[in-house]
């Protein structure tokens, strides 16, 4: 099992898919990395040599922000918006949708389970 960017990537999957287990690397970025290193996309992680795993690890460390650093950066961006008390920051603070979605109905993912209002008939 290869360990890249602090994540154990599954050894029985194709390299392109296995790299997506790292937070911050999607299919496009994974494809770009393996093309850059001239690794065939059909190869499995277990078939990679140690040298290829080291090359992948170095490329990710050098060119991409992943895992803890990316999570920290995202959290800091949200915290900055909340500290500025701009509209987006206030929406984050209240746990409501940030990007202009309607909240009269829907928005249950952000708002949580519906709370019954006592005594409301009609």
Automatic annotation (TrEMBL):
Keywords: Ribonucleoprotein, Ribosomal protein, RNA-binding, rRNA-binding, tRNA-binding
Gene Ontology CC: cytosol; small ribosomal subunit
Pfam families: Ribosomal_S13
UniProt GO MF annotations: rRNA binding; structural constituent of ribosome; tRNA binding
One GO biological process term: translation
UniProt keyword annotation of rRNA-binding present: yes
Record region (Disordered): 95-122
Quaternary structure annotation from Swiss-Prot or TrEMBL: Part of the 30S ribosomal subunit. Forms a loose heterodimer with protein S19. Forms two bridges to the 50S subunit in the 70S ribosome.
Functional summary from the UniProt entry: Located at the top of the head of the 30S subunit, it contacts several helices of the 16S rRNA. In the 70S ribosome it contacts the 23S rRNA (bridge B1a) and protein L5 of the 50S subunit (bridge B1b), connecting the 2 subunits; these bridges are implicated in subunit movement. Contacts the tRNAs in the A and P-sites.
UniProt similarity note: Belongs to the universal ribosomal protein uS13 family.
Protein name as catalogued: Small ribosomal subunit protein uS13
Organism per entry: Sphingomonas ginkgonis
Lineage of origin: Bacteria, Pseudomonadati, Pseudomonadota, Alphaproteobacteria, Sphingomonadales
This protein's encoding gene: rpsM
